């Protein structure tokens, strides 16, 4: 059985890697009810601190099945580490740090439990105020992932530099950006915006995709195994991006080391809340100047949809402690105080729609206005498409962008070509 799973994993692998070795066909049986629940969590200091607190508190109750957590093992990616574990039969009971594209792969090979069939699922969704959020995480009508956090991608603007060019507000429309860019170009003082996040496939989550969500009112870019972005909204976005590059108002060669926003090379950059902590340490004075703005649209929507960099928690189908694992998950996420702790430790907004109204979070955001401005978009921050072909799809999008940026290709024709490539891929 493990060999069959390994073959399927290799066929639909999201990240290029090599799997070696094969574990036993069957796991040890006759495990007692008190055998610890094994959990893997995202390998970063802040998230580990949160889970350390949760596990210690949970384990104090002798009636609870104890939980043992460790960071996801070192590999080129969390996805690779998890797939290696599945191939060798060493996977945990629970894992966090799962995005919906990877979950799609795991569901395709039958590796994830449907949480909606667990006792108390609807109560948890209601208690955590996730009723409007959870539908975007459905896979084949089932709920295999419980979202933990949602990081809305928004524009960070240098308010001090905006004022230099006569702007007392952040731009929200394409034509406003053009006006700002022309003023910036007139004094030969650098670029206006970091239009693209980079050259890697995953960076389309931080440029084309959020701009497309914003322009089309939150409609998906894939639907029914078909690419849907070769439409008027996609054409508007790609034309806008092409104009910015062809006018030399941005560069495709910014690096993370440059941080063009902090250095003043640009007036705006699309970011998530995770950069706030880094700016506190590295650029505290720059942080004071920042203003948060929505994704730019043709007409200037004040609260448009955007992409939400988001991850969730899953229970593996192979777990012999599913009920106990689910009891732990319920215990963690049924308590808003726990979400408040998550927010304080990580700075990432919990996947809740009451962040702007629940006193627990209102109090926190009063002291952290920049985080509040970002979190206000949680209700319109959508996950990526639920597909097993994320890498290939977004590589096609990257090539599409580069054709417009470097070859001045016609946006409509380039969109059609990319959509056709993706449709062919999805038809296989």
TrEMBL record:
<dbReference type="InterPro" id="IPR050490">
    <property type="entry name" value="Bact_solute-bd_prot1"/>
</dbReference>
<protein>
    <submittedName>
        <fullName>Carbohydrate ABC transporter substrate-binding protein</fullName>
    </submittedName>
</protein>
<dbReference type="Pfam" id="PF01547">
    <property type="entry name" value="SBP_bac_1"/>
</dbReference>
<dbReference type="InterPro" id="IPR006059">
    <property type="entry name" value="SBP"/>
</dbReference>
<feature type="signal peptide">
    <location>
        <begin position="1"/>
        <end position="16"/>
    </location>
</feature>
<keyword id="KW-0732">Signal</keyword>
<comment type="similarity">
    <text>Belongs to the bacterial solute-binding protein 1 family.</text>
</comment>
């Amino acid at each position: 059985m493990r060999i069959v799973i390994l073959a399927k994993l290799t066929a639909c692998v999201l990240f290029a890697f090599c799997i070696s070795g094969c574990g036993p066909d069957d796991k040890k049986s006759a495990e007692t009810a008190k055998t610890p629940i094994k959990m893997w969590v995202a390998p970063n200091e802040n998230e580990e601190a949160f889970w350390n607190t949760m596990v210690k508190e949970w384990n104090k109750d002798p009636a609870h099945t104890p939980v043992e957590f460790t960071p996801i093992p070192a590999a080129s990616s969390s996805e690779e580490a998890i797939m290696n574990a599945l191939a060798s039969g060493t996977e945990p009971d629970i894992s966090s740090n799962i995005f919906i594209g990877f979950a799609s792969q795991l569901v395709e090979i039958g590796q994830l439990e449907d949480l909606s069939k667990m006792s108390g699922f609807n109560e948890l969704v209601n208690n955590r105020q996730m009723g409007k959020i959870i539908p975007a995480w459905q896979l084949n009508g089932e709920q295999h992932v419980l979202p933990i956090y949602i990081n809305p991608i928004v524009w960070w603007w240098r308010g001090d530099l905006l004022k230099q060019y006569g702007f007392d507000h952040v731009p929200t429309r394409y034509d406003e950006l053009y006006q700002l860019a022309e003023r910036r170009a007139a004094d030969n003082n650098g670029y206006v915006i970091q239009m693209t996040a980079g050259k890697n496939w995953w960076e389309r989550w931080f440029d084309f995709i959020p701009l497309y969500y914003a322009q089309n009112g939150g409609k998906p870019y894939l639907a029914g195994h078909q690419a849907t972005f070769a439409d008027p909204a996609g054409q508007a976005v790609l034309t806008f991006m092409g104009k910015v590059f062809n006018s030399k108002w941005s560069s495709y060669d910014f690096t993370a080391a440059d941080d063009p926003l902090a250095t003043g090379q640009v007036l705006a950059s699309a970011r998530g809340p995770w950069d706030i902590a880094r700016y506190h340490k590295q650029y505290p004075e720059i942080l004071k100047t920042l203003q948060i703005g929505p994704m730019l649209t043709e007409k200037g929507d004040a609260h448009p949809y955007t992409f939400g960099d988001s991850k969730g928690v899953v229970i593996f189908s192979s777990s012999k402690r599913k009920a106990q694992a689910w009891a732990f998950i319920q215990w963690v996420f049924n308590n808003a105080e726990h979400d408040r702790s998550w927010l304080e430790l990580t700075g990432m907004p919990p996947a809740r729609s009451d962040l702007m109204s629940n006193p627990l979070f209102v109090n926190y955001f009063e002291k952290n206005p920049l985080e509040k401005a970002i979190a206000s978009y949680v209700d319109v921050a959508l996950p990526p498409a639920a597909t097993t072909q994320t890498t290939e799809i977004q590589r096609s999008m990257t090539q599409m962008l580069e054709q417009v940026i470097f070859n001045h290709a016609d946006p409509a024709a380039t969109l059609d070509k990319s959509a056709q490539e993706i449709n062919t891929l999805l038809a296989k």
